[in-house]
Design a protein that fits this description.
Number of strands: 14
Distance between the termini: 24 Å
Largest sheet: 6 strands, mixed
Helix content: 10-25%
Strand order of the largest sheet: 4-5-8-7-9-13
Order of helices and strands: EEHEEHEEEEHHEEHEEHEHE
Mean pLDDT: 89
Radius of gyration: 17 Å
Structural class: alpha+beta
Shape: globular
Low-confidence stretches: 1-7
Number of helices: 7
Length: about 250
């Protein structure tokens, strides 16, 4: 399947749940960033109307906007459990600062907002537990994705061998140039580092896959779309390609 033909959504065949990744081809145009931009969603006042693009895509998913759960992503390794007590007090709390969520509650959507960083969806078909994980270089250095798998196994009772995952469009190892000080944090992943003409490039998706496999997941259970956001910034927002830009949405319906 050629994912670039999708005007609004892409999805993962590996995951037996409804998954989605928006493009910048549809939705409201809110600023100079263009259509389908979720960048400023965390700034929407809670007591007013939901973010216009959140409302638009909620209608496409046939759910209420208040069933979509998102975070203030901070490039760390905090993992939030979306359980009934959290849902009941959600709107009385500040937007939580974290970079991953796990839940088994039915009928909600767990989402991330991205523009080059690696976005990962994980799912246990047996336990009906789902997770989303945002992993830039800082999150990858802290092994956030490996920690999500570990938490799904040890706190949610999932079998790592039956977990499935999907990796969204993200910046590829050809385009993600980093400094030597960052490369030094990933010496355990030599295959993900390219040193060319005194320049360093890092393959974050390869690192994330290695971290999930290290926790017991099967490599063949991890679906990677292999689309670079910087090389395809006409379809997905790219911070490296555009600097000041919007954010697209990745998510899973539990």
């Amino acid at each position: 399947m050629d994912w670039t033909d999708f005007p609004a959504f892409v999805s993962f065949e590996t995951i037996p749940a409804r998954t989605f990744c928006t493009t910048r081809k549809i939705g409201a145009s809110l600023s100079e960033h263009g259509f389908g931009d979720f960048r400023y969603i965390s700034e929407t006042p809670k007591k007013k109307e939901p973010h216009i693009n959140l409302t638009f895509f909620a209608s496409r998913l046939s759910i209420s906007p208040d069933k979509i759960f998102f975070l203030k992503q901070v490039h760390g390794s905090r993992i939030l459990s979306i359980d009934t007590p959290f849902v009941e007090k959600r709107f009385s709390l500040p937007l939580p600062e974290a970079d991953a969520m796990i839940s088994s509650l039915p009928g909600i959507a767990l989402v991330l907002f991205l523009a080059d960083c690696v976005g990962i969806l994980l799912h246990s078909p047996e336990k009906r537990v789902s997770a989303v994980c945002h992993s830039g270089w800082r999150g990858s250095a802290e092994n956030i994705c490996g920690k999500v798998v570990d938490k799904m196994v040890n706190q949610w009772g999932c079998d790592p061998k039956t977990l499935v995952a999907g990796i969204a469009p993200s910046i590829c190892g050809r385009c993600y140039e980093v400094g030597e000080e960052i490369v030094e944090q990933f010496t355990s992943y030599p295959d993900a580092i390219v040193h060319k003409n005194r320049r360093y490039f890092l393959d974050l998706s390869a690192i994330v896959i290695a971290q999930m496999v290290a926790e017991g997941m099967k490599p063949e259970s991890i679906e990677q779309c292999r689309i670079c956001t910087k090389e395809n910034s006409h379809l997905w927002y790219s911070h490296r390609g555009e600097k000041d830009t919007g954010r697209f949405m990745l998510g899973i319906l539990t």
